[in-house]
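User: Hi! I'm a student and our assignment asks us to look at how structure tokens line up with a sequence. Could you show me two examples?

Assistant: Happy to help. In each example below, the sequence comes first and the structure tokens follow. Example one:
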Amino acid sequence: MDQSGSTGGQGAPTGPTSGWSAPPPPPVQPGPKGFVYADVPNRFIAYIIDAIILFVIGVVVAIVLGVVGLRATSDNLQTFGAYNPIYSIIFAIVGLAISGGYFIYTWTKRRATVGMQVLGMQIGDAGSGATLTQDQAIKRWLALGAPFTLAQAFNPFPLLGLLIGLAALGWTIYLLYTTYQSPTKQGWHDIFAHTMVVKATNSVG
């Protein structure tokens, strides 16, 4: 099916459909018809937008936890300022649930996160362009979003937070590198979940 919004007969131009045709081998076309492969800068900016949204939600969660009596540090006079590990564990669990829910929902129901939509990108099955299945979305999130969320949640722990943070940073660099090196801009996480991120040609600046 033509994805470029062409006019069929006397009717109005058709809108975007839920998939795309599998792209021919490069260099015949730069991507599926009507799209180009989404490059690293666009995807990185989209991820920053999504991270800001999740950060704001995280602040709200922290406030709610504080209202119910859970705080990152103790307010007891004898242990004032001491770090509360129970808080981090709960915050990590809640943070993982929110991150997973956000990415999995937007990938499977909207074909794009808010950040991706801002930049005119969408995600689909690498072969058919169909909307991701829930299994694909979960696998992609486990490879992409979960490590970063864990690093944020456990950052306050003196040694554990540092180790997880360094591991998450290294993993992020690896994913960016594999995405950059791929002719179809599929990082390891995309290969793992059999997904592809594209950008509409009419939104390429």
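Example two works the same way, sequence first and then tokens:
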Amino acid sequence: MTLLSAPAEPVVTSLATQSDGGRLDAVFLDRDGVINENRTDHVKNWSEFDFLPGALDAIARFTQAGVRVFVITNQAIVNRGVVSRDSVEFLNRRMVQEIEHHGGKVEAVAYCPHRPDEACFCRKPQPGLISALALHHRVNLRHAVTIGDAMSDIEAGLAAGCRAVLVLTGRGREQLARALPRGHTDFEVATDLSDAAERLLGRAAAVA
């Protein structure tokens, strides 16, 4: 398992321009609001980290089906001085350990420590985190899906060349309500990570 922060310099923004049917080789999961409960005051330490119902089983299902799992997360609280990089990385390691204990595997966790005003290439909705992981781990993004609870996750995935699924946990319902009137329809919607896994794996099995 690899822990990455921001890429040192801009990397290729996209390794694909189109998705490819139902084949599924990898998923890029947002963290807060998808794997664990979101907090208005941010998840700052392990005692504040609570897995969402069904999330651990969903990740295990992806792993058992041979789907590679990556986690991508914006953590601007680092550069805001709320927590240290070490704290974020410790929390991510604990998360990965719990996932492994329940039968899942996370190949890498990548996070962006920058504030929005720093205008970096890695903070979602920019695709930098996904592109860096795809380049490093040789992921064909035509066969990948990004799953998040915010339109910034969806936009990052689409910009990188993935398909995208918005889950209704975390900020998902609020984000969906804002997106639909603006005509954003180039993504799927699932109740939660478990529902997303069931749909995606079912579709992948059908085209295998």
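Here is something you could point out in your write-up. The beta strands are 2-4, 26-30, 68-74, 108-112, 144-148, 163-167, 188-190.
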